[in-house]
Amino acid sequence: MNGREDVVRFLLEKGASPDVHDTFYKASMLDFVLQRKHYGVAKMLIRKLAANADAVLESVAATGNADLVAALLEAGKPSPAALDKTYEAALGRKQNGGRRAVEEGGAHEPAPAFVVDVKTIEAYAGTYKSDQIPLDIKVFVKEGTLYMQATAQPEFPLKAKSATQFEFTLAGVVVEFDSASSFTLKQGGGSFKFKKAVTQ
């Protein structure tokens, strides 16, 4: 975390595991290193973690550092699905460096968003609540696109996959509307049912 490349190199050579996670935040050591921009240390960890390239590709690409992405692609073989997902996320963040690197690694252009009738998405607008988690989610339309915003969090756009299914690739969020007044949000293996409490 302090960027001491000499110490990290020594410990890795002695067999230290690069796949350790913080006990409080549950973040990986690579995540902490990338956050602090210790890219020399990151490259050492990436080489050791390359066997599980799918798991670290998104974190590495999120830096926008093309050299780091290239180092991972050189050391490991991410699946086509992971490359495509990371490419779409890089497009959403407007990070050309990471986008070009995964494109050169074999990623494909994402499919265009499904076109949903404006009246349909406007019907979804409102504030939703869940009995499962204490979180309010505001759903609204901006410039013809459906957006969501959870309490005290930034808003994010949803890409339509169908008239009832939307996703936010960057965070791995999938939203499926059962009707104009309820949806199921899926993320990280969790599935949460939300019902409209306030219509906008």
TL;DR?
The chain is an alpha+beta fold and 200 residues long.
For the secondary structure, the number of strands is: 9
Output the strand order for the largest sheet.
4-3-2-1-9-8-7-6-5
End-to-end separation in angstroms reads 46 Å
β-strand percent reads 15-25%
Instruction: Give the % helix.
Output: 25-40%
User: Can you summarize the main beta sheet?
Assistant: 9 strands, antiparallel
| Residue windows where pLDDT falls under 50 for at least 5 positions | none
Rounded radius of gyration (Å): 20 Å
Secondary-structure-based class equals alpha+beta
Secondary-structure element order, N to C: HHHHHHHHEEEEEEEEE
Average pLDDT rating: 89
Determine the number of helices (DSSP H or I, runs of at least 4 residues): 8
Number of domains: 2
Q: Could you say which overall geometry the principal axes of the C-alpha atoms support?
A: elongated
Task: Write a concise keyword list for the protein shown above.
200 residues; Lipocalin; 38% helix; 24% strand
Structure description:
- The chain folds into 2 domains: 5-104; 118-199, Beta Barrel (Lipocalin).
- The longest helix has 14 residues, at 80-93.
- The protein has 200 residues and is of the alpha+beta class.
- It has helices at residues 5-13, 29-35, 39-49, 53-61, 66-75, 80-93, 96-104, 118-124, and strands at residues 126-129, 137-142, 145-150, 156-157, 159-160, 165-168, 173-179, 182-187, 190-199.
- The model has no long low-confidence stretch (mean pLDDT 89).
- α4 (53-61) runs antiparallel to α5 and α4 packs parallel to α6 (80-93).
- A 9-stranded antiparallel sheet has the order 4-3-2-1-9-8-7-6-5, covered by helices on one side.
